[in-house]
Amino acid sequence: MNDLNDLISKAQELHEKGLRAGEIADELNISRETATWLLTRSETSREPVPKDIYVNWSEIGQNAERLRFVSLALVDMILETGDPDVVVGVALSGLPLATLVADEIGAELAVFVPQKQKGSENDGVKGSFSQNFADIAGKSCAIVDDVITTGSTATEIIEVIKEMQATPLSVAVLINKKGISQVQNVPIRSLVQITIF
To answer: What domains can be seen in the chain, in order of their start residue?
Structure first.
């Protein structure tokens, strides 16, 4: 996408396909606030553009070999914080990376579906773990996702992991748009950290 109008068109196209604001935010790697703004913006609107950064990592995501190389870098960062029993992939975009990371480490794979993927963004219901993958109870976990935008998903997953009597060792991501180094005393490890002055 080359400009804001392209991003608006893409957001509207995703909305027409039935995606909610949280899902659109994940798909475009923008905040939910920005996704809502893109969907409700009109030609005559004077509302200011939310401060956000659009991230397009499709050149990595569309190529399995590139994903594997990036995964190896994530593995290196994860192992600096401990050797996890389970790698937790955050649905949707964190799953391919988490799968490759778990394979490389020799760890089990768990899948977390955050509240924003369930359409429960405002009702206080937390996300949950898929029953088709590893159980994390009592185990040490490394969390893998693609982008941290606000830190809310990382906070949510860490809370759920702790509620399940498991230990979150680290959160590893491709891009950290928030610029945070930890969430609830769990280190954030990112390949790219964006700092806005």
So the answer is: 1-54 (1.10.10), 63-193 (3.40.50.2020)
